[in-house]
Recover the amino acids of this structure.
């Protein structure tokens, strides 16, 4: 059984043919998405919408974060922005070429813009976000970004887990 069958379908849209993943890359994708899911759970436990992100280069994690706008009083403190800021500071470089961003939920327009500015090579997300998702749902900015930087996009990696986390969170909040 392949990793895709074990963990749900991996529907990949690769704009860059050279980024076509091997089976090993799929295993890495799942491992990194599990790290993002763990971060998302921490966020949910802290009362934030449970979204987690991991930024990876050469198979190693540069940064992990969960959504944190409420605690930080910062509307831009989405998990994606937080890992980009943290990694850029560590790398002492405002651009992060050769990196892959894993995020449990489809990024919003703000985060897609930040990912383009950071020159991230590839974005992998779990489940779609119908209202604000800006790669496949409410907009498809990954294909129409200004400038000439485009990143490869893969979706559906552990998507069921990511969606279940969101559903549990909002169900608990409604019940509270
Ligand atoms: Zn965002």
């Amino acid at each position: 059984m392949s990793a895709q069958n074990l963990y749900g379908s991996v529907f990949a849209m690769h704009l860059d043919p050279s980024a076509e993943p091997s089976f090993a890359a799929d295993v890495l994708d799942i491992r990194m998405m599990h790290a993002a899911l763990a971060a998302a759970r921490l966020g949910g436990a802290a009362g934030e919408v449970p979204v987690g992100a991991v930024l990876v280069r050469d198979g190693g994690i540069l940064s992990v974060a969960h959504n944190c706008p409420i605690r930080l009083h910062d509307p831009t403190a989405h998990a994606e922005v937080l890992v980009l800021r943290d990694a850029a500071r560590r790398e002492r470089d405002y651009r992060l070429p050769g990196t892959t961003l894993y995020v449990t939920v489809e990024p919003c327009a703000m985060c897609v813009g930040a990912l383009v500015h950071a020159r991230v090579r590839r974005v992998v997300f779990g489940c779609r976000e119908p209202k604000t998702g800006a790669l496949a749902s409410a907009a498809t900015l990954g294909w129409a970004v200004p400038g000439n930087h485009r990143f490869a996009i893969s979706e559906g990696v552990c998507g069921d887990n990511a969606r279940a986390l969101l559903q549990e969170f909002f169900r608990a909040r409604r019940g509270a």
Residues 78, 80, 107-108, 110-111 surround zinc ion (CB under 6 Å).
